[in-house]
Design goal:
The chain has about 180 residues and is α/β, with parallel strands linked by helices. Helices cover about 50% and strands about 15% of the residues. The protein is built from six helices and five strands; from the N terminus they run H-H-E-H-E-H-E-H-E-H-E. It is globular and about 65 Å long.
Length: about 180
């Protein structure tokens, strides 16, 4: 009985390792057009999640969103719980995006400015687990981030789902 259990465990690890290897090979690509074709046959609008950071990151993201066509991209936004300015900036720059506040979601910030690195482990884990549920519910096809610490747990959750669940593909767009 023990040998059967060990054989099943070994087979499971082999399948998981093969999935991880296949995911890594197909995920890490130098071809620029691969992501453009991924959603060519998908119904529009594409479910797009935008992570807003505070301060300059939100300003940069709003510059990117100026020309986004709402008929092609259904935008949802993720903001840190302690971010008090991003929603106001979006409202000022693109009032059409704030007409439905249910599209704005908050997550715990993974690291506050000046927070010690030791305590960052716990706050990042809390943010990651919060993002797991949110990313699963939103099921983004496109994830648009530009570098704030808030995006790290969101990206990690999206990539984890892509790795473990093959039909949960996501195109990650990082702009800095």
């Amino acid at each position: 009985m023990l040998y059967v259990a060990l054989a099943l465990l070994a087979a499971l690890l082999l399948v998981l390792s093969a999935r991880c290897a296949w995911w890594a090979v197909t995920r890490i690509s130098t071809r620029l057009t691969k992501g453009q074709r991924k959603w060519a046959r998908a119904a529009l609008p594409l479910r797009t999640v935008v992570v807003l950071g505070s301060g300059g990151h939100t300003t940069e993201m709003l510059g990117l969103l100026q020309k986004f066509d709402q008929s092609r991209y259904q935008l949802d936004f993720i903001i840190a719980e302690t971010d008090s300015t991003s929603l106001k900036r979006v409202e000022a720059a693109r009032p059409d995006l704030t007409s439905d506040l249910r599209r704005f979601h908050t997550v715990p910030r993974s690291r506050e400015v000046g927070q010690s690195w030791v305590s960052t482990v716990g706050s990042t884990a809390k943010a990651f687990f919060s993002c797991l549920a949110l990313v699963w519910r939103l099921h983004p096809q496109v994830l648009l981030v530009n570098g704030p610490g808030t995006c790290v747990p969101v990206v990690a959750a999206a990539l984890l789902f892509e790795l473990l669940v093959p039909f949960r593909a996501v195109t990650l767009m990082f702009a800095e």
